[in-house]
Design a protein that fits this description.
The complex is a heterodimer of chains A (295) and B (322).
Chain A: E1 2-6, H1 18-29, E2 32-35, H2 47-50, H3 52-69, E3 73-75, H4 78-92, H5 95-106, E4 118-120, H6 121-129, H7 131-134, E5 146-149, H8 173-180, E6 184-185, H9 204-220, E7 225-228, H10 231-239, H11 241-248, E8 256-258, H12 259-266, H13 284-294
Helix pairs in contact in A: 1-12, 3-4, 3-5, 9-11
Chain B: E1 2-11, E2 18-27, H1 34-45, E3 64-67, E4 70-73, H2 79-82, E5 88-92, E6 99-101, E7 104-105, H3 108-116, H4 136-140, H5 153-157, H6 159-163, H7 169-180, H8 193-199, H9 213-217, H10 224-237, H11 244-259, H12 264-272, H13 277-292, H14 307-319
Parallel strand pairs in B: 1-5
Antiparallel strand pairs in B: 1-2, 3-4, 3-5, 6-7
The chains are: A alpha/beta (295), B alpha+beta (322).
């Protein structure tokens, strides 16, 4: 299996532990990754506030690169997934619009034919790799560990661009993955809600209130950690949890795992090789519990 | 079809008020809607169940409620499509607004927010001598937003309103856009500067998290979040750039134009203002913690290969526009 790898900005920026962790587990899974060093940022929905067409042209440029490689795209970010899916949805469903976009790409000698398939690693495991094929690689099942799923908005909404109609299992993909890893799913009302990250520098109080709400809720439900396929959610839920705890006036201490880290732990990868020591919220109690469960 | 309808009940008349779940076993026609099931419960099984409904045709906007956790119109939702694995449909009142009884919520906050955006035309300058003639082309793009039936589904599922009831919210902001984008509103060029100034304040357009809940919930395709993004673009284009939100969009765009990627390290100071010491100090504990955990984004920001092509795209599509 081979994919054009689109790691996104944050997995090498604000969450530098994610990029190596994702590459490590892909290596173990036998998934080959081809980097696209000329691919740009998706715009993350922010660029699209100002100029949606410009954002779509940038994404079409990345799609054209993947077509030239003849590979589907793998992302490890819910936000990148959503923004790419939305851009692709507009282009493949409107030939006239696609032609307009291609006019802009022609200057660089590129053309997007409309065949790109951008997929998050979560969907790849579910739909291409097969969770059954993942099972034999689970050498240290996360038995006894309670994990709460946290999707990130852009991998669950809007459902038309994400093609949930033809792929209804995407709506519960993270829960299914957690089960395959041997952990217990902690279902909670906030799992598809917003982490608050997009308004962190605009209305910090509200942003941090969202962090407090979600992390407190899973804490009260007895979760050992949250798992997210979105590095932006990770940034807010992990880095701003101390502030959330102070604002909500209660202890929380909820470790937040990147999805590839949770998979790596279940594959027996050492926590430090997955970058768990780089988290703001201490992951040691979780690791200790894992060790205890393994013995 | 036989289905279990699990309803979140609320009885305000006992002391203290009682909230509880109640299951009803209902037999429905294959084509039956969730509203058909609820009406059947109320008429044949339990007259104490309270809900609002009227047209049964997704026009009146009365029957918005949470179906399996997400806001929708009960009359527009087929029971067959809503049943889960255990043949159950979970029904709760709309979120955010206070519950009056069972599935009936108090819409006062919804209406007060709509009133706050002054939902009527406010032309500036001298009145036209005869009627104001607006071309079909200039009104066409408003057809989506005028489709709003005020059902409150978007407000129910708004992630910001859930933590901050002072936010204007998706319905009111979409309604505001309906006027700011109307050529008859505002100055001679149709620019609604005074409105945009008011919406540019805290609790307004910049407080939206772009979570898409309202786009997903809206039964009429109004896509409130897209209207909020359009409001932001309008605000920036009339010169309202002294907000963290506007600076954030600008700094983000500059970063992608310059390097093809997001420069997270410089995004925050550029957003709050490079000389805004209190705001920078407020972020200092997080920055320090990130630094000590090896999480601070790299100081030297790498460019993508062929960044000049990205810059060309920006030059053609963005700089020209301004």
């Amino acid at each position: 299996m081979k994919y054009a790898f689109y790691p996104g900005c944050v997995s090498r920026g604000g969450c530098p532990e994610l990029y190596p962790a994702a590459k490590l587990i892909c290596q173990r899974l036998g998934i080959e990754l081809q980097e696209m060093p000329g691919a740009s940022c998706t715009g993350a929905g922010v660029l699209q506030e100002k100029n949606r067409f410009l954002g779509d042209v940038l994404n079409a440029r990345t799609f054209a690169m993947s077509e030239a490689l003849g590979l589907p795209i793998m992302t490890i970010c819910s936000t990148c997934q959503g923004v790419m899916s939305q851009a692709n949805f507009r282009m493949v469903n409107d030939a006239e619009y696609l032609a307009q976009v291609n006019k802009e790409l022609a200057e660089e000698g590129l053309e997007y034919k409309g065949t790109a398939v951008p997929k998050h690693l979560l969907w790849i495991l579910l739909e291409d790799y097969g969770l059954d094929n993942l099972t034999p690689l689970i050498t240290r099942p996360l038995a006894g560990v309670r994990l709460a799923p946290f999707y990130g908005c852009y991998i669950v909404r809007p459902t038309d661009a994400l093609d949930f109609e033809n792929n209804p299992e995407r709506a519960s993909s993270l829960e299914r993955l957690i089960e395959i890893l041997g952990a217990t799913v902690v279902d909670f009302s906030g799992k598809t809600r917003c982490c608050g990250f997009p308004i962190l520098t605009i209305n910090e109080k509200n942003s941090v209130a969202m962090v407090a709400k979600h992390t407190s809720e899973v804490k009260d439900l007895g979760a050992d950690a949250m798992v997210t396929p979105c590095p932006l959610c990770h940034l807010n839920l992990d880095q701003f949890q101390p502030k959330a705890s102070a604002q909500a006036q209660r202890p929380i201490d909820m470790p937040i795992l990147h999805m590839p880290q949770a998979i790596g732990l279940a594959m027996g990868v050492r926590p430090e090789d997955l970058g768990l020591q780089r988290h703001i919220i201490n992951t040691r109690p979780l690791v200790t519990k894992l060790g205890a469960a393994a013995h | 079809m036989d289905v279990t309808i699990r309803v979140k009940r609320y009885d305000p008349e006992v002391d203290p008020p009682l909230s509880y779940w109640q299951d009803y076993a209902v037999t429905l026609e294959e084509s039956g809607t969730v509203l058909d099931a609820l009406i059947k419960i109320r008429e044949d099984m339990d007259g104490s169940l309270s809900l609002r409904c009227s047209c049964r045709s997704a026009i009146c906007g009365s029957c918005a409620m949470r179906i399996n956790g997400h806001a929708a119109l009960a009359c527009k939702t087929q029971a067959r499509a809503a049943v889960g694995e255990d043949n159950t449909i979970v029904i709760e009142p709309a979120g955010v607004m206070p519950v009056v009884k069972d599935l009936v919520v108090d819409f006062d906050m919804f209406w007060s927010k709509i009133m706050e955006v002054e939902p009527y035309l406010q032309p500036e300058g001298p009145e036209p001598e005869a009627e104001y003639i607006a071309s079909a082309e200039s009104m066409l793009h408003l057809s989506g937003v005028t489709a709003c039936i005020m059902c409150g589904a978007c407000v129910s599922d708004c992630t910001v309103l859930e933590v901050d009831p002072t936010f204007l919210g998706p319905a009111a902001l979409a309604k505001a856009y309906r006027f700011t984008a109307d050529p008859r509103d505002g100055d001679a060029e149709g620019r609604s500067v005074e409105r945009l100034k008011a919406l540019n304040e805290p609790t307004g357009m910049w407080d939206c998290t772009r979570c898409y809940e309202c786009v997903q919930a809206c039964p009429k395709g109004v896509a409130p979040m897209d209207r909020i993004m359009a409001l932001r673009d309008q605000a920036i284009s009339v010169g309202l750039t002294n907000t963290n939100g506007a600076r954030h969009a600008e700094a983000f765009s500059d970063s992608v134009e310059h390097s093809g990627r997001l420069d997270e390290l410089r995004l925050v100071p550029k957003t709050v203002g490079m000389t805004n010491l209190p705001a920078l100090l407020n972020m200092a504990p997080e920055a320090l913690r990130a630094l000590t955990h090896g999480k601070l984004p790299p100081f030297t920001h790498e460019k993508i290969e062929g960044v000049n092509h990205v810059r060309d795209i920006f030059r053609r599509l963005e700089d020209n526009e301004e």
